Amino acid sequence: MTTHTPSRRWYTGVAGTYIGLAIALLAMVLFFGSMSEYFLSANTFITIANDIPALTVLAVGMTYVLIIAGIDLSVGSVMALSSALCSLAMLRWGWGLAPALLLGLVSGAACGFLTGFVSVQWQLPSFIVSLGMLEIARGAAYVVTDSRTQYIGSDVDWLSSNLIGGISPAFVIALAVIVIGQLVLTRSVFGRYMIGIGTNEEAMRLAGVDPRPIKVAVFTLIGLLASVAGLMQTSRLEAADPNTGIGMELQVIAAVVIGGTSLMGGRGSVISTFFGVLIIAVLEAGMAQIGASDPTKRIITGLVIIAAVMLDKYRDLRKQGRQAG
User: How far apart are CA 275 and CA 25, in angstroms?
Assistant: First the structure.
């Protein structure tokens, strides 16, 4: 009789997830390629690559948050606030690019820290706390920019410039974040603690691990990554738009859930999340090329999200069945 160690079962399950997502992505590419003669072109894939850096970076942070059984709805607003503060520093205060970028990064990390600290310290649902931060950050972005787009110019366009074959530095940075994020999750004590907290927080306490600073650190990290995403958007537009990132949190959560990260916590993969990002991006690009209306795009995206959640629930039920057996 053949036996499988837990690690072997884990690797087999992960490989199966990657293969399944890769097949789904390939099927979508072939479908839209058959529907539009322009889809299977270098220009389409370069455009997709340069469109997804902000979503990718945010999705890494959201993967961590969902793994610890939390959620952060404020990421789109934090993007806007970080971008707004960067423009304020450069246009009104006369700061150089480096200190202005640093201000944007610090502001995002501070928003994430506040969300995590309030949620953990007072044992409040992160859904509610982050919803409050969503309104605070968005309102602050409007105040800072006087509710108008602030044009910065070419000083910030380097992140979106052509690097190699039309690929932008922002995409390279996003790939680096994916690699680092996966290594932290799978090869570090911090990553094991995150999975442990999402699986059974009380067991972690009994094992002598205080979940509170870890959870606050995860929310601080997603705030920092939201500010990085905001600066990427600023570079693309060469401007700070207080409306940037509206609805972004829904796209991010969709990508992470499609990638297989459990909404119940304790399970997730940054690589799988990247597949989810690509699926969302290909779906949007493909529907745009075949002339689908905006309402149709939203309906189809919503159906994909529901299907992903149903699949997540099915996985949980199978896991519980195996454990019971």
Answer: 8
pLDDT digits (tens, 9 = 90+) for 259-280: 989 888 898 999 999 999 999 9
Whole-angstrom distance, CA of residue 319 vs CA of residue 315: 6
Per-residue model confidence (pLDDT) at position 10: 43
pTM here is: 0.92
Torsion of CA 110, 112, 113, 115, to 10 degrees: 120
Phi-psi region of 198 (alpha: psi -120 to 50; beta: other; left: phi over 0): alpha
Show the DSSP H helices in the chain as ranges: 6-35, 42-51, 53-67, 75-91, 97-121, 126-145, 169-187, 189-199, 201-206, 211-237, 248-258, 270-289, 294-324
Dist CA 267 CA 320 (whole Å) = 14
Residue found under tokens 């322009």: 38
Specify the CATH class of 39-312 in words. Answer: mainly alpha
Q: What is the mean pLDDT of residues 37-66?
A: 95
Least confident of 34-38, 61-65, 84-88, 316-320: 316-320
Side chain identity, residue 171: F
Quick one: tokens of 134?
Answer: 């969503």
d(CA 149, CA 244): 10
